[in-house]
Amino acid sequence: MNKKFDFIDRLVAFAGDVILFVEAMPEGKAGVYLFNQLMRSSGGAVLNFTEAQNAHADEVFIVKSRIALKELRESQVSFQILNHVEYGSEENREDLEQENVELIKILVTIIKNREAK
What's the CA gap between 59 and 97, in Å, rounded? Predict the structure, then answer.
């Protein structure tokens, strides 16, 4: 399979896993706020990167990819907050946070490689 689709598959799996993580959480005010943000940002990353794949020019690809990167970084901050207050399953939270960090590193590399063209 082509690498760009492997990355999209990982983004899709990450967004799906975030939804499952969120669905298992209690519905306190803070949790609802953070979990809604986390679902939007994780889903936004895959949606924007998918748009980048269909870009008609490198500049558009880079802009859309940077938006996806921004979404992943927002997810990272949400996980940091959740870790600080120890909200949700620690094991699931840590696994999702680690995958988020790896996705950020991959996307930064993709953007740098495209900019170098």
Answer: 29
- For residue 3, give the amino acid letter: K
pTM for the model: 0.91
Tokens of 50: 């998918």
Q: Token digits for 16?
A: 């799906």
Distance of CA 86 to the CA centre of its chain: 20
Q: What is the CATH number of domain 3-115?
A: 1.20.1440.60
pLDDT (0 to 100) of residue 30: 79
What ranges do the domains of the chain cover?
Answer: 3-115
pLDDT tens-digit map of 35-85: 899 999 999 999 999 999 999 999 999 999 999 999 999 999 999 998 998
